Amino acid sequence: MSGFAGWVREATEPSAAAGKPEALEGIRVIEFCPGHFGGMVAASVLAEFGAETVKVEPPGGDPLRLVAPEEIRVAGTGLPFLSEARNRRFVTLDVDDSAGRDVFRRLALSSDVIVTTESPERMEAMGCDYPSLREERPGIVYLSLSTYGAFGPDASRPVRDSDILCQALSGAPYIVGEPEGVPPRPHEAPTRLGNWHGAFVQGLWGAYGVLAALHFRAETGKGQAVDLSGAEALMMFADYNITWMHTGGKARERVGNFDPAVFPYTYIRCRDGYTFIAAYNDEAFDSLMHIIGRPELSRDPRFSTPKNRVVLENERALLEIIEEWSGDRTADEILVAVEAYTSKRGGPGAAVVTGRVNRPLETLGEENWRERGCFVRSADPVYGELLLAAPPWKMSGTPARWKSGCRPPGSDNRDVYLEILGMTEEEYRLLAEAGTF
Amino acid sequence: MTRSRRSTLPSDPGSFRAFAGRAFDPAAIPGKPEALAGIRVLEVATRIFGPATADYLGLFGAEVIKVEMPPRGDLMRYVAPEGFFWKEVSPAFLPLNRNKLHVGLDLHPVEGKELFLRLAERSDVVVENLRAGTMDAWGVGYLQLRERNPRIVYAANSGFGQWGRYSAGRASYDATAQAVSGFSAVTGFPDQPPMKAGFWVGDYTAALMSATAILAALAARRKSGEGQMIDLSQAEAMIRTLDWTWPYAGLTGKDRARNGNVDPSYPPSGIYRCRDGFVSVSARDEDEMIPLAHAVGATDPEEASIATPERVGAFCASRRVDEVVRISEGAGFSAAPVRGGRDHYHDPHLRARGTVCSVDDPLYGRVDEYGPAPKLSESPGRVKWSAKPVGWHNERVFGGLLGMTAGEMEALAGKKVIGKWADLPGARPPIGSAP
Q: B100 to chain A, minimum CA–CA distance in Å?
């Protein structure tokens, strides 16, 4: 490993993160997002950077714990919840009860950040909406996540926020998948991103909004409300939808694995599955045609300019030509061929890019990710050993890190209510007996 | 376990909504302060991953100086849908480069490196997305920069990270990350090939993660006084988003299946075909499942299992999208239309929220864009101006910020250390507007 790579490795080695300071040390986050994955993501991101994070669940546990694809549960909790329940403390609280609402308000007023997915009306009825909390704690940052946002003509639509609603509204599925034939086959439809990408990006933009607000607070002392629609969060990733409509009157439509702006930029069949191939600027396209042994095609009028290459029928023709070459090669052989050629060419001609379309187990089988600490195996007396994605950021000064995994509902009640809220043993016992938590 | 309910508590109707309408009013944004005012960002990046990272910082008030190699600049300038340029700029370049100052600066000659180092002395953040180690090899990497400015936060965005067996020389685009992470393998239909998302999701997702880490590093700097290096791989960013894929693989030793348009965590929630388009139907728990089952024809309303994907599919197929949404609102399950760019452009809700916004640009006139998603009540994000030709702000940055004279700039331009746009669509100003 060269000098610089060696330096970065030593400076950012994830296994050495534990002894280093944390970026958000001293920031307390209260997560009140029953049944909601995006809220968990927002809180997780802040917690991975070191915020002290407390998740408030209803007594008995968060409804999201019940969500269990293929009915797989570990000690009663499904895998989606387990995958995101990191770096936080778990308290239970019955907020439908007046004593519980009082405890929640005390908790909220002890914190720097509130993350909630409950409706403004419900938070208002609890006395914990933003305007009433800021009366007593003007520096509070209050993130509220929903499908449509807290204002605007559709804000009051009665939906329970979910990944699929946010994806649908975002414009993402509209441009993912195959166009409709006549008659359309079942898969010729706007296609859902297979993971909860809508909810994940909602949480990520939420965390970003909170960090921007905390930056402003550090400069001015002022807190604020942050309103985030999950649909709009993913919408910001929908390329040039609006600028193309505005300048050309055109909307993006589905073109399967083709692309209206860059080609080749697609998945190609190879001997062991599929791999990605891109070479869309003229110099890179010329490189690719050399690699596949068809240099004359750089001058073929169908392919000789970026504009001609993105005509859909030319994309189809080119895909066929490339697959004649790739069909009897493995993804790894294709990578070797690309690197052998591009390592001799600098500049735009080197922009031939490839990478195997991995199944998850294939990703897990690649030593690179293990070496870079991308996965953690958590171990817990209740939930056993779990394979989880680690925080993706490697940082030299204040690395993000995985610290702890899921715990049962209410595991941290005593610590949080006695230490943070300063409850007496007597008060704690009475509330526990009354079923407040 | 307790289940959350729809509006279980009495409320004073609308007082928060009224507050929100005032506090987030897009018309009031120009008079409000910006969250990241005073933060200066240097961008040395092409295409999407790096430029989007800097764009997200710029939307919230950071001053972004986009350093481009003259005269062609960022190769994203030439990525144009169907080859279409508007006023000599690509509509695909615009949304990635709002609120930036564009300088043309070649980092290869010694004078170019020195200018860059002088800019870095006056900056808080560097964002780059060159192949791993390139900036270091050029003498303008993190180790050289921190000698001149120990407070610098340096985000190195790449495909596979700055170290490790895949890092050396290997290039990456959005779809590399989609492919190698396992994201594409879980997207699409079980009897069809893996589906590449038709938008550059592997870039934007990682860009947002990079921008998030930059804000965390700035928070850390407030306490320590020191900057740091951030190494972010876009493949690793996508790996992090795959929710239960990994614990499932760990426990079962199996690959999670592609599940088409039904969410395997909340069946039958999914996307369904209607007479006139597509709709998403969502039922998170029994409180929504029972009304859904009833709506799609269950005779026993307690029999939630009758809301199979087939039943919901048949129910939607004979109805219009707006009918399904209306029925959901009355019945107590959730539904929303599948929308595209044309719908967004004309959507009064998105316009009222500033999520689709218009900017009055001095060079291009009115440009409509997606505005920032998070709405901040006190220090909101905003689009102030659109992308510009290569080197458009050379005088402002080299003259105004570094204090160079016109003569000095002319000499450097003569040596091609600094420069402006090539005479090409994508790089140059609108015809007839050039100064």
A: 17
